[in-house]
Amino acid sequence: MSFGALSPAAVLALSRGAKAAGIWMATGEGGLSRYHLEGGGDIVMQIGTAKYGVRNLDGTLSDDKLREIAAHPQVKMFEVKLAQGAKPGKGGILPGNKVTPEIAAIRGIPVGEDSISPNRHRDIGSIAELGAFVHRVRSVTGKPVGVKIVAGQPGFLNDWLNDCVMHPQHCPDYIQIDGGEGGTGAAPAALADYVGLPITLALPMVVEARDRHGLTERIRILASGKLITPDKVAWALCMGADFVVSARGFMFSLGCIQAMKCGSGKCPTGVASVDERLRQGLDPTDKGNRVAMYAQQVIHTVETISHSCGLTDPSGFSVDNVTATESGVAGFRNTAH
Ligand SMILES: Cc1cc2nc3c(=O)[nH]c(=O)nc-3n(C[C@H](O)[C@H](O)[C@H](O)COP(=O)(O)O)c2cc1C
């Protein structure tokens, strides 16, 4: 989640909590701020369609900025966002009144002017260009590069993974698959509700395609999409995800009450507020502890489920350990005889 969508105190709490829990934090598309760095934990720097934080003024990718960001030892990976589940095929606009000098400096845009995130990367119009982009970011930064997608037609996945097999330098180090049920600060309800495959269908499809192309050892898979309770996390690991990531799980630990005012800047909890008075309601120390406790509790419970399945840890989960019940809830089982 971007700095700008989230308040400074919220980003600071996430950064401290992530460090305390030993998990990483992703920047979202809004660039890398000092609040992300302050906690001291590992960071994934996202490159969205506006290329905030790593752009020239005209919105094209800047190798110099990429190198600058990569020089932070805390930044461990880069992520090219093609889409997110809440609004596939849709860009965004940051209104000029939210483009403060601090946000403008972080994102690399003029102060006080509306800023458009295009609905796609203007320099990625084909699978070959996607591969070349991944290769460029990895070569310039020297760090692993992932790609965040929402699944639609299987044909794209097949063509993309074929290209990765033929041109290994085009291959991403990970794919983050975001379910159509993904969240955001503001999105048209029709896209948030209806567009993009849900994670229950998308994750098995991506895992199967990766394995069929012989890329199991080459590409790690990250999953997201309302995977915010231990049962859902364990389900995703059983289905082949290597990691599970979440936005809203952490928003709740920050104190989000789903007031549905993210876009207005008037979030009453200080999580997404622009208003200085409202922001004071979020204490980064207290909420940083809650972020850490949430992550630790999810990890602990997933481990408990794995032990009950006869495994030493969750990395041993396989599709045989899970079954869907009639209500759609995952049930877990021990496969040992
Ligand atoms: C307030 C908010 C801001 C977000 N900002 C971004 C973003 O900048 N880039 C992105 O790829 N996804 C963004 N997302 C989507 C999440 O990263 C995630 O993919 C999605 O919400 C699914 O995870 P969840 O169900 O655990 O929230 C945002 C989500 C929320 C709730």
Summarize the structure.
With 337 residues, this protein is an alpha/beta fold.
Unreliable segments (pLDDT under 50, ≥5 consecutive)?
none
- Named CATH topology: TIM Barrel
**Strand neighbour order, sheet with most strands:** 1-2-3-6-7-8-9
CATH-defined superfamily: Aldolase class I
Number of domains: 1
What is the architecture at the second tier of CATH? Alpha-Beta Barrel
- Oligomeric state of the chains in view: single chain
Principal-axis shape: globular
Secondary structure class reads alpha/beta
* Strand segment count: 11
Q: Please, how many helices?
A: 12
End-to-end gap: 44 Å
Radius of gyration: 19 Å
Explain this structure:
It is a single chain. With 337 residues, the chain is α/β, with parallel strands linked by helices. It is built from twelve helices and eleven strands. It has one domain: Aldolase class I (TIM Barrel). Helix content is 38%, strand content 13%. The chain has a seven-stranded parallel β-sheet. The longest helix is centred in the last third of the chain and has 25 residues. The chain is globular and about 65 Å long. The structure holds flavin mononucleotide.
Spell out the key features of this protein.
alpha/beta, two-stranded antiparallel ribbon, 337 residues, binds flavin mononucleotide, 11 strands
Write the layout of secondary structure elements.
Layout: H1 8-21, E1 25-26, H2 34-38, E2 43-47, H3 63-70, E3 75-81, E4 92-94, H4 101-107, E5 115-117, H5 127-141, E6 145-149, H6 154-166, E7 174-178, H7 189-194, H8 199-212, E8 220-224, H9 230-238, E9 243-244, H10 248-254, H11 276-279, H12 284-308, E10 322-324, E11 330-332
Parallel strand pairs: 1-2, 2-3, 3-6, 6-7, 7-8, 8-9
Antiparallel strand pairs: 4-5, 10-11
Helix pairs in contact: 1-12, 6-8, 9-12, 10-12
The protein binds flavin mononucleotide (FMN).
